[in-house]
Write a structure and sequence with these properties.
By secondary structure, the protein is mainly α. About 80% of the residues lie in helices and about 0% in strands. Helix 5 packs antiparallel against helix 6. The longest helix has about 30 residues, at about 60-90.
Length: about 110
Amino acid sequence: MNIGEKIKELRKEKGITQVELADAIGVTKDTVSLWERGRVNPSRWSCTALADYFEVSLDEICDMAIEKVRAEAIKEFADRLREEVIKGCCRKDFLVTIAIDNLVKEMVGSRNEV
């Protein structure tokens, strides 16, 4: 379940509309709609406001978004490291590059299954 689906589920459980949720946490109805459709992830502030409003932990409401950001950061770091290693062009560096690729696949793959 992604963060938008989680927000929608919590909103429906509470029996409120997107407008009511938006008013309660100080955003627009369009923002809530974008979150629920997975077009945009809530900011840290919005995650905190959502968690407070729904009386759930911050991890419960925003963990999916945080994991996605972590996975993207890991991949970006590995890509940059790989580029630097490739510039060295030696056998040892090539083996390091393969190890990095395998590690990233393992980490990002496990994050996507969350």
